[in-house]
Structure formats: C-alpha cells, structure tokens
Amino acid sequence: MHPAVTTYLLLTALNLSSVAAPTARPEAGSKAETSNKLNWSFIPDPALPNVLILGDSISIGYTLQVRKLLEGKANVFRPLNSRGDAPQNCSGTTFGVGEVDRWVAGQKWAVIHFNWGLHDLKHVKAPGSNDKSDNPTDPVQATLETYSKNLEQIVAKLKATSAKLIFATTTPVQAGTTNPLREPEAPKAYNAAAIEIAKREGAVINDLFSFCEPQLGKLQMPLNVHFTPEGSKALAEQVAGSILKHLATPPNP
C-alpha cells in the first residue's frame, strides 16, 4: 500500500475517535462557478484540435484562462449547464461515472485534462451525497476504495475516446478547512490511488498538488480549497503548458 494511503487511513481512524468537529471560518466557495459576469460561450475553430477539461470548481476557476492561453492553438471546452451559459461542476467520481458519457459525446478530442478528488474526500452526512458535514465522524463522499473503482470506470471511458489523457492531481487542503471538512492528508492518499490508475491506462500526470504545495499561502484563499485570482492564473498557466506539450504527442496506448 502506498505510504500516503497508509498515513491517511491511520489519521482517519484517529479522527473518528473524536466527536468534536474543528472550528474555522466557513469556506466561501468558488467565485468563478457562481459569477454571472463571465462569458462561457465561444465559436470553436474547426481547423484546431479540441481539448476537454473535466473537473470541479478548481478547474472552473482556470478554464477560461486556459482557453485564452491556448487561443489559436486549440478549442478548449468544459461541460456546461443545460442552457449552455454557465459551467457544470463535475463534482465527485460517483457523479462523474453517470455523466462522463454525455460529457465526451459529440466531439473528437485531442486531449482530455481531468481531475476528481476534492468532492470525493469531503465529509458528508451520507455516503455519496452532497450534504456537506464538518463532523469527522461522518463519512466521506467516496472512500478510497469507492473512489478508485469509480475512477477506473471513468478513465476507461475517457481512454475509449482515443484522446491523450492528462490527470491533474488534486490540490492541497489547508488544516482547519471546513464547510465541508476535509483532512489535509487526504489529497495525497487520493492522488496516490489516482496516479496508479492513470499511469496504468497510459495517462500522463499534471502534478498540480506539488506545484501548489510550496506556495499555497500565496495561491489559495485562507481556510478554503479555492484559489485567489492570482492562484487560478498560476494554475491556468500550468494546465495550458501541460496541454500544449501533449497536443502533438500520440494518444494513449
């Protein structure tokens, strides 16, 4: 078992022995996800390769900037709501398993850049739900075992598109982040499981966790998994660079 997974499981067991939830300023949420001032529509250039970004509100925060950075090089898409005027949050793997066929339909993808993790590892009132909790005795949305099984199904469906696959590691969680509660050790454990699956299926890794960790204080909002505008800009540059690097490489074997 990967050391990060072992450490996370031990710390989770210790948390479950306590009934007191940590106190902290509530997480404010993603401004990019809820803003009605952003224009998500665009006219793709049929001469350019198509790129799909799949992920939660962290990816929503950088998608439009990635589109701008890759202007003239690729058409950058992400799932939108039924009206097509706002981004859809790809949430956790439990939701992703049921929606991924729809998300990849209708286009020939050159690259799919994807992440799942922050929703899976959050505490909720009932397994699989989005009813968030700050109580460490409540379950996470998807255990490591469930997350791994779900992600295996998702990656298999992504691989079937013949796109080049890039897995972005889940970004760090600061200690004391609540609304919902997430353990700081959890991203490393979930990333370890995801990287093993992604590499086995021929995907490459965009290690956003390692990029963010040493500079988290200047990139991420306090006691919040979401990023400042400067942080989202930095993530966008990392993501655009990874996508551009792999646009010209062969698809996954």
Give a verbal description of the structure.
This protein is α/β, with parallel strands linked by helices. It has a single domain (47-247), classed as 3-Layer(aba) Sandwich (Rossmann fold). It contains nine helices and five strands, in the order H-H-E-H-E-H-E-H-E-H-E-H-H-H. The protein has helices at 3-16, 31-34, 57-69, 93-104, 144-159, 186-200, 208-212, 216-219, 229-247, and strands at residues 50-54, 75-77, 109-114, 164-168, 204-206. Strands 2-1-3-4-5 form a five-stranded parallel β-sheet, with helices on both faces. Helix 6 links the parallel strand 4 and strand 5. Helix 4 (93-104) packs parallel to helix 5. It is globular, with a radius of gyration of 17 Å. Residues 16-26 have low confidence and may be disordered.
List its salient traits.
alpha/beta; 253 residues; Rossmann fold; single chain
Provide a short characterization of the protein structure.
The chain is of the alpha/beta class and 253 residues long. It has 9 helices and 5 strands, in the order ααβαβαβαβαβααα.
Layout of SSEs?
Elements: H1 3-16, H2 31-34, E1 50-54, H3 57-69, E2 75-77, H4 93-104, E3 109-114, H5 144-159, E4 164-168, H6 186-200, E5 204-206, H7 208-212, H8 216-219, H9 229-247
Parallel strand pairs: 1-2, 1-3, 3-4, 4-5
Helix pairs in contact: 1-6, 3-9, 4-5, 5-6
| Assembly of the depicted chains | single chain
Major β-sheet annotation: 5 strands, parallel
Helix content percent band: 40-55%
| The CATH C-level class name | Alpha Beta
CATH names the topology as Rossmann fold
**β-strand amount:** 5-15%
CATH architecture level-2 label: 3-Layer(aba) Sandwich
- Describe the strand arrangement of the main beta sheet, using strand numbers: 2-1-3-4-5
Q: Give the number of domains.
A: 1
Number of separate strands: 5
* H/E topology pattern: HHEHEHEHEHEHHH
Number of separate helices: 9
As residue ranges, the low-confidence spans are 16-26
| Coarse shape | globular
Average pLDDT works out at 90
Computed over alpha carbons, the radius of gyration is: 17 Å
* CATH homologous superfamily identity: SGNH hydrolase
